[in-house]
Every structure is written in C-alpha cells, then in structure tokens.
Amino acid sequence: MAMIKRLGIALTLILLIFPVWAQQKSKQEKSDIDALKQEEGQDYYKKWLNEDVKYVISPDEKSVFQKLTSPDEKEQFIEQFWYRRDPDPMTPTNEYKEEHYRRIAYANERFASGIPGWMTDRGRIYIIHGQPAEIESHPSGGSYNRPMHEGGGTTSTFPFEIWRYRHIDNIGSDIELEFVDPSMSGEYRLALNPEEKDALLHVPGAGLTLAEEMGMASKEDRPYFNPGNRENYPMMALRAKDNPFERYETYTMVQRPQEIKYKDLKEVVSINIDYKPLPFEVRQDYIRLNDQQVIVPISLEVQNKDLSFKEENGVQNAKLAVYGIITSITNRVIMEFDDDILASYQPENLPQGLIARSIYQKIVTLDKKMRYKLDLVVKDINSGHTGVKRIAIVPPMYDEKKLSVSSLILSDYIHQLPQVPKIDEMFVLGDVKIRPSLKKVFTQDRPFGVYLQLYNVGLDQASLAPALAVSYKIIKDGQTVIEVKEESGESVQYFSGQRVVLIKTLPIKELQPGRYSVAVEVKDQISNQTIAAQDNFQVTVPPQVAAK
User: Fold this and answer.
1) Can you tell me the distance from the alpha carbon of 521 to that of 471, in angstroms, rounded to the nearest whole number?
2) Burial of 281 per CB tally in 10 Å (0-12, 13-18, 19+)
3) Three-state SS across 268-333?
4) DSSP output for 402-457
5) Which of 149, 329, 362, 476 has a CA 20 to 30 Å removed from the CA of 38?
6) What is the pLDDT of residue 126?
7) What is the pairing mode between strands 189-190 and 172-180?
8) What residues have CB less than 8 Å from 135, skipping those under 6 apart?
9) Is residue 514 part of a domain?
10) How far, rounded to the nearest angstrom, does the alpha carbon of residue 243 sit from its chain's CA centroid?
11) 441 and 389 fall within a common domain
C-alpha cells in the first residue's frame, strides 16, 4: 500500500509538473522561432544591401538604409528603391529590377572563378552597365600583335578581354575596358593600364615595341613606367582616351552606381533620399456614390513653416508641385493627377502665414469592389525638398440594407454653397465646401465642425423625410464633457432616398487644451437601427505670432 501511495504521489507530481514544463518548453520554442525569424530577417536585409544592390545603391541611399531600424521601414525603403528605378511605372513589372537580377544570374554563371561571378570585376561591370557592344576575348593569352596606340610590336600576354561600350551615361562614348587574368586562374581583373596584360613586361629584351626593336626607346621609357613620357614615346599613336588621367577617371567612374534618371515627377514618382525631406500629412475619406462606386476625397496638408518662401514682385511665395498616381493591386494605372499649390503672403503677413498650412485635395471616383494604392509626391519648388508617401485605398463594403455611414470628417471650415458647382472643385461635396483637418488639431477660437453621411435611412411614408435621433458627444478620458442631443435631426443638411447629410458645429471654446474624442450616435426611428461614428482630436490654444 505504501508503494502504491508513493507511486500515486509521484504520478500526481508528474501530471502537475508536465504541463508547466511543456508550457515552458513551448514558450522557449516560440522564443527560439521568433529569434530565428528575426535573425533570418536581419540576414535578408544584410544580404540585400551587401550583395543584391551593392553595385547599384548610391552612398546616400546606403547611409539612409543603415539608419533604419524596423523591418517595416526597411521593406518600404526596398520597395521605393526599386520603384525609383522603374523605367515605366505604368507597366505591371519593374523592368529594371528584373534586368538587374538577370544580370546577377548571368554574372554568376559566366564569371565565377573560385568566388561567385557577381563578386568579380567583370561581374561588377556587367551588373552596373550590362552587356557591352563588343567583346574582344583572348582566353588563352599567348602571342599578341600590339596596335599602334600600344606601341606596336609583338609580345606574349596573359588571358585578357577588351569590353567596348558605345556610350555610358555620365562617362562618355567609345568606352574601352580591359580585364586581365595575371594569375591564370580565371579571375579577370579590371586593368588600369593596357600594359598589365603583357606577360613579358618585366623580362629584359622580350616583348619589345616597334620603337624598342629599332633602338629608338627602351622599356624604361614606356608610359607604364614613365606616365609623363607618353607624348614623347616614339611611334606610338595617341588617343585621347589613353591619357592617364582619362583612363583613371574612366576606371573610377565605371565602378560607381549609375545615377537615377529623374526626368520629372510623372515619369518616375521620384523619391529624394534627403536628410531634410518635406513632411506632409495625407488622408483619404470614403463617400458612397452608388451601388458600384465610392467617392474618395484625397487630402494633403503641408505646414507653411516647412516651406521655402522667396520674394517675387514684392510678394513672398512658396510653390509646391503635386503628383499622384493611383494603381490597382495588379499595378494597372487607374488615374494620374498633377497640380500646383501656391502660398502667397505680403511681407508684413508672412509671420502669420508661417503658422498656417497649405492644403490640397483631389476628389476621385473609384470602383468600391477594388483595392488600390496611391503614390503621392510633393515637391517644394524653391528648396527642392521632396516628400513621398504610398498609402492603400480600400473602399468599405457598405451593406445594401443596413444603416451605414461615410467617413467622419472633422473640419474647422464648413460652408454652404448657394448651388452645386458645375465643375469639380477642391473641398466641395455636393453644395457644401468642407476643408478637412488632417492633423485633427483645433484651436479654442476656431469652429469645430462634424460632417457625416448616412445610407439606407428609412423615410416616413407620409412626409418622405427621415426621423433621426442624433447625439453628439465630446469625450475626455472616458467621460462625456459635452453632449448635444437632437430628437428631430436638426443637423440634417440634406436628405434623399440615397443619403442623409449631417453637419454640426460643436462648442470647444471652453475646453481645456488636451486630447478628446467625438462620437456621433444616430438612431433611425423608422427602421429602429442605430449606428455610431467616432474619431479623436486635439484642442490647443490659439498660436501666437512672433513679434518682429
């Protein structure tokens, strides 16, 4: 009995301990997996920087990438890196990226020599500049009749190749590059001087030039040993590209990353890698148009203090160029737009203008069943600083029968127009001009407006009007500090069978500076449905203009 009792106690202990041990083991395994994933991620980014794009990334880009800390930042950088180099953003494929990795594969296949082909000099030049127009190959070396620009005569050489490019941007035309394999191992090295391929260069009395054969010069007189003697060396044809300085410049330039061809904002959606990029805010709202389409006001905002103002005809002007492209998830171009923003102030009003903001809006109509991405570029014309953002546009799926709402738009400027404009205008929805607050920061002395659309609202059969009970609440730390109730929908600005528009201005003058939230609760008293919309905002004191 005692033994059975001891076995029972032991079994109980095992049953108690095993789940704890298993849980600890599971946690340890999960921790190990997470660490492995993190390590693999770090290895991936390290490989991308030090191998994949080693020869094509600019020093500025490399410096910026090395300062990034989170994987999301690095992924976004990599995506933008390839996007900047895409020769035709309108196509679904990035031709530059595909060609780059094809060149790496080709280099590894053709130029490997104990080390991967991409690490060799030929691999490097091929990856940067692509296939040369002509290759003169001497894979075994041996007897070689020099051309006259090398001094003529016959010598024996190491294996070598001469690559000829008709033109390389920012370097020149008719470019010749020599690769020599002095170790006879298959590792060709980019030569600075054509004499490097001469296997008899240091052998007295062998491999002589024509001038040396005729006793007009000695090996010590050659430009290889005496660069300043090139023009005086007998019987040697002179070419401008054989000048030592020209050769050294070419040698250096061909190993640098090629410059990105910034043609204009439309062609490349260019992103400046700049330590002082232009910051801006962007938001998109969604307004249901019909069963198939949604209206998307795209708003962007730049603080004037971040702009460069210049005097023109006695007026301080800041100019912004805006370019946007909307594409589907398959990279099909849906829409492009570009525009200019001008902020102008009289010199005496500039201090006040610097605490203001410049706002731009583009209202587009999209298929609500699709998803999109928007690339936005904003450039300060005066300073050259450029800001770039990519955002997703995902229209909501409105229920065709249930009560639903649009985006809740907070604004410090809502104005009723006498009629609906005949052409599209910024900030205009129907007959209402509403300027959204992107940062949702409101000063105590400015209006605090709320704009909301309702869909599938029931209409009274007798009056053909909605019957809505609406509550507007301003909340601080979970407590309601302001509440405005409407039993008859006094804030209804417009209604039809398709939509109801609510507009309300709430008092915030007495609110203390801080963070708040606003909640709009609507009850449809005909269909007995309830819906709510909420957003956060901040109240601040009015800014003070600095004294002159």
Assistant:
1) 5
2) middle
3) HCCCCCCCCCCCCEEEECCEECCCCEEEEEEEEEEEHHHCCCEEECCEEEEEEEEEEEEEECCCCE
4) S-EE---EEEEEEEE-SS--SS--TTEETTEEEEE-SS-EEETTS-EEEEEEEES-
5) 329
6) 97
7) antiparallel
8) 161, 162, 163, 164
9) yes
10) 42
11) no
Least confident piece of the model among 48-57, 111-120, 255-264? 255-264
User: What values do phi and psi take at 283, rounded to 5?
Assistant: -145, 155
Q: In this structure, are 98 and 137 located in the same domain?
A: no
Side-chain-facing half-sphere of 125: CA atoms under 13 Å: 25
User: Quick one: pLDDT band at residue 545, thresholds 50, 70, 90?
Assistant: low
Please name which of 336, 341, 345, 291 lies closest in space to residue 316, comparing C-alpha atoms.
Answer: 345
- Give, in order, the Cα–Cα distances in Å from 21 to each of 6, 16, 17, 35, 173: 22, 9, 6, 21, 71
Residue 32 has pLDDT above 80, yes or no: no
376, 397, 418 - which closes a domain: 397
- 483 is written with which tokens? 């509440």
Do 497 and 383 fall within a single domain? no
Please name the amino acid found at residue 178: E
- Are both 326 and 284 inside the same structural domain? yes
| Closest C-alpha to 451, from 289, 248, 287, 210 | 287
- Tokens 């005692």 belong to which residue? 2
Dist CA 533 CA 136 (whole Å): 72
Query: In the prediction, which pLDDT does 227 show?
Result: 80
Boundary (domain end) residue, out of 369, 397, 425:
397
Same-domain check for residues 416 and 486: yes
pTM exceeds 0.90: no
**Could you give phi then psi for residue 427, rounded to 5 degrees?**
70, 15
Cα(106)–Cα(130) distance, rounded to whole angstroms? 10
Q: Does residue 88 lie in a domain region?
A: yes
Q: Are residues 279 and 182 in the same domain?
A: no
Residues 295 and 380 in one domain: yes
Question: Distance between CA 355 and CA 441 in Å, rounded?
Answer: 13
Residue 462 sits in which domain range? 398-548
> Taking Cα atoms as reference points, which of 386, 408, 524 lies closest to residue 457?
524
Higher pLDDT, 242 or 448: 448
More confident residue, 309 or 72: 309
Same domain membership, residue 148 and residue 107: no
The letter for the amino acid at 129 is: H
Q: State the amino acid at position 396 in one-letter form.
A: P
CA distance 357 to 376: 18
**pLDDT 10s digits, 470-490:** 999 999 999 999 999 998 888
Q: What angle do CA 482, 485, 490 make, to 5 degrees?
A: 125
Does residue 43 form part of some domain?
A: no
The total of structural domains in the chain comes to 4
